[in-house]
């Protein structure tokens, strides 16, 4: 290598390093500029092309990202990340056959690497080819028993099938909540807790916190333990209303406790099986004064139904679990005697409201305490798979849950129209991916039947 070539290589490497620094802080535009500088010096820099693909994907340019990934793969077949990243991106576009071919080729090129095996398992899970998915995850674990990604993804497959014992063990491979690093106490592993204090730490989304906080009651019943909980701010006021919690915190640095435990570890520690799920509801309650305040805004007669049609857009499967339009629920407008109310936290336009004749409550719901207070005055909640549905279930309120066909969450299992976690739930599933019209029609028919049954009583 000549001195000029060495200088060029050093310059391109420096630009590549600068791009990595920008990527770590998610400054995508600056990262792209640095990578293009590296590639201008060395157009065949495969690692830079791989990272450029990822940056372009984050910036919303999937076609350009695909081109960069494929060029990287052609230049350096041994570079694993380009194939894995391309596979993940194409799976989000439902290009399943292409993804399968990419992963199988990558497995042939890297027979000793677990990552392409577990990525193939994720693909097969999404395609509802569960037997093949399990085989892939177990093959990844055979190659590397400490490969946490494979064990975590296997946990979701097992839990969805009701194979809880191994599923709870495998879910321990998840990343622990960041708050754990600030807690100066040992993690609880099932020791007797009488006379002790235990800090529960919420993890995942708001729905996970609402789902698994049910175990707090079991803890107190078994040991009369003093319970504290660290939760997101939106849940602070609601959890503070629960007598089971001695202290509710949003900042774990202020916590003083004998032990701590992440919420999602409690089912394992209690030996939860499909036949002993703690499903007694309600396990959350609302301050009576707050409930009265909100219920005064609701009509006295008619069937009062709350609607939620979208979840957090940052959630990985939100495009499939959320409704793109309220027109899906327009058949509800034809049913007389029903009052529809928006439980959706984001504002809805007037045109959307007119589609189904929905009413906005005159005040903004600030947090889940307000939403819970409204729900206590409703007869029914109809929701996509998001936190408000869990809130309705925790309050013991009837909830009709609209579920996607693609990547349905593990806790709703595979074919059931009820839930072992929430006895007041009824599940309405897509039969084909994206077909919410069928779900909306089924819900309208069920609502009409409910009204007719109620009038004959």
Descriptive notes:
There is one protein chain. The chain is of the alpha/beta class and 457 residues long. It folds into three domains: 3-171, Alpha Horseshoe (Serine Threonine Protein Phosphatase 5, Tetratricopeptide repeat), CATH 1.25.40.10; 178-269, no CATH class; 288-455, Glycogen Phosphorylase B (Rossmann fold), CATH 3.40.50.2000. Helices cover 48% and strands 10% of the residues. The protein contains 20 helices and nine strands. The protein has helices at 3-24, 28-41, 46-58, 62-75, 80-92, 96-109, 115-126, 130-143, 148-160, 164-171, 206-212, 215-223, 233-240, 266-269, 288-295, 318-321, 350-356, 368-376, 387-394, 436-455; strands spanning 197-201, 226-230, 245-249, 259-262, 303-308, 338-342, 380-384, 399-403, 425-429. The strands form two sheets. A five-stranded parallel sheet has the order 6-5-7-8-9, sandwiched between helices. Strands 3-2-1-4 form a four-stranded parallel sheet. Helix 13 crosses helix 18. The model has no long low-confidence stretch (mean pLDDT 93).
């Amino acid at each position: 290598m000549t001195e000029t070539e060495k200088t060029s290589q050093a310059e391109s490497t420096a630009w590549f390093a600068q791009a990595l620094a920008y990527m770590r802080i998610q400054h995508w535009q600056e990262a792209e500029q640095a990578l293009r500088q590296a590639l201008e010096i060395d157009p065949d820099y495969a690692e830079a092309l791989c990272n450029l693909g990822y940056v372009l994907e984050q910036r919303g340019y999937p076609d350009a990202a695909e081109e960069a990934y494929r060029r990287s793969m052609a230049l350096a077949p041994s570079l694993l990340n380009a194939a894995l990243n391309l596979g993940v991106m194409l799976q989000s576009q439902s290009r399943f056959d292409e993804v399968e071919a990419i992963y199988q080729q990558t497995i042939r090129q890297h027979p000793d690497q677990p990552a392409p095996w577990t990525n193939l398992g994720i693909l097969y899970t999404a395609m509802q080819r569960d037997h093949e998915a399990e085989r892939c995850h177990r093959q990844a674990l055979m190659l590397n028993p400490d490969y946490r990604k494979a064990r975590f993804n296997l946990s979701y497959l097992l839990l969805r099938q009701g194979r809880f014992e191994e599923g709870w063990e495998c879910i321990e491979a998840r990343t622990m909540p960041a708050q754990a690093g600030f807690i100066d106490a040992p993690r609880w592993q099932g020791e007797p807790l009488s006379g002790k204090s235990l800090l529960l730490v919420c993890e995942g989304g708001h729905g996970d916190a609402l789902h698994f906080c049910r175990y707090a009651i079991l803890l107190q019943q078994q040991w009369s333990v003093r319970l504290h909980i660290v939760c997101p701010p939106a849940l602070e006021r609601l959890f503070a209303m629960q007598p089971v919690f001695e202290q509710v915190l949003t900042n774990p640095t202020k916590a003083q406790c004998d032990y701590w435990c992440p919420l999602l570890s409690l089912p394992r520690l209690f030996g939860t099986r499909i036949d002993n799920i703690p499903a007694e509801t309600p396990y959350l309650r609302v301050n009576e004064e707050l409930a009265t305040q909100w219920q005064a805004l609701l009509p006295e007669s008619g069937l009062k139904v709350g609607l939620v049609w979208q979840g957090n857009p940052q959630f990985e499967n939100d495009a499939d679990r959320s409704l793109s339009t309220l027109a899906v629920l327009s058949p509800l407008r034809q049913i007389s005697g029903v009052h529809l109310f928006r439980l959706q936290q984001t504002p809805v336009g007037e045109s959307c409201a007119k589609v189904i004749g929905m009413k906005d409550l005159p005040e903004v719901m600030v947090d889940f305490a307000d939403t819970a207070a409204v729900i206590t005055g409703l007869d029914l909640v109809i929701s996509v798979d998001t936190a408000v549905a869990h809130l309705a279930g925790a309050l013991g309120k009837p909830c009709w849950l609209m579920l996607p066909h693609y990547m349905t969450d593990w806790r709703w299992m595979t074919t059931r129209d009820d839930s072992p976690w929430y006895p007041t739930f009824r599940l309405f599933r897509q039969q084909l991916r994206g077909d919410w019209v069928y779900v909306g029609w089924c819900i309208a028919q069920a609502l009409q039947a409910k009204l007719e049954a109620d009038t004959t009583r």
